[in-house]
Amino acid sequence: MAVVSSDHSTPGMSCEALSSADEPIRIFTPSDIEEYNTAYSEGFYAVIEGFVVDATAMVNSHPGGLKKLMQTNLKVIGYTGKDFGFSFSKGRNAHFPGTGKRWKQKVKEFLTGEKGEDGKLKSLQCVFDGEGGSVIILGKLQL
Ligand code: HEM
């Protein structure tokens, strides 16, 4: 089976620095995410570099398989050693550079995009290349 190794790791691609504290952004707590993932058997929220995404559309299409996708929010994944530390560009589960690049481009679009009726930044879809699937960027995680 193919393994995505840390050879693809490109820390400069990380999106964490793009975001500031005073954005009009939807905020989620870890329990919001855990509760959502428990309550909706077909819905799945994940955290990528501190941004909360609806990854339901990836459930049946993640090229690395369902098991790995479902581990996304666990502390064994990612680089922080804590829950919700997943990144496309840091850590042993790093993905191909094109995936991180698309992600960063969409996070920038999200952060500079329109606001919805609630005054918060509107959700934005991020479609990955090929059969890579898609996620919807919703907001930010507050630990
Ligand atoms: C929301 C979280 C995730 C998203 C949106 C996502 C997305 C993707 C995408 C678009 C690809 C295809 C392109 C590429 O390899 O870069 C991919 C492949 C892959 N992903 Fe993920 N991924 C997520 C989480 C994870 C996690 C947590 C792991 C491992 C623990 C993982 C392991 C893999 C592997 C092994 C492949 C390669 C499959 C192959 O070579 O055929 N992914 N993922």
Automatic annotation (TrEMBL):
It comes from Triparma strigata. The lineage of its organism: Eukaryota, Sar, Stramenopiles, Ochrophyta, Bolidophyceae. This is Cytochrome b5 heme-binding domain-containing protein. Residues 25-116 form the Cytochrome b5 heme-binding domain.
